[in-house]
Amino acid sequence: VRLVESGGGLVQPGGSLRLSCETSGFTLSLYTINWYRQAPGKERELVASVGRSGEDLNVANSVKGRFTTSREDDWNTVYLQMNNLKPEDTAVYYCDRVGGYWGPGTQVTVSS
To answer: Could you list the mean pLDDT of each consecutive 10-residue stretch along the chain, which spans 112 residues?
Structure first.
């Protein structure tokens, strides 16, 4: 089982990024995938999950209306679309599958 995040970077406040989580070693369509983030000095927090039917689940109040999830099972990839980014969104973002499988993370920095 492998998950690898990509798409992070430096963006100005109000900007957008789309994170990808490329998976392998399991049948993606059978699983909900979670997006977490961890800012320096803070605990890891659940941002949102993408259900098996592609629905948003567990969306954190702090990102509601700005972040959405999606998935392309044929491409073994899930996405986190992040709009209207704020400095407080700065963190390392991780995707996760049940069973304790995590990717290495991708850094998102929101700064002017």
So the answer is: 98 98 97 96 96 94 97 97 98 94 96 96
- Contact of 11 with 17, CB cutoff 8 Å: yes
Phi and psi at residue 75, to the nearest 5° = -105, 5
Measured distance CA(37)–CA(96) in Å, rounded = 11
pLDDT value of position 99: 86
Write the CA distances from 59 to 21, 38, 51, integer angstroms.
17, 16, 11
* Beta strands 9-11 and 106-110, pairing class: parallel
Report the distance separating Cα 92 and Cα 38, nearest Å.
5
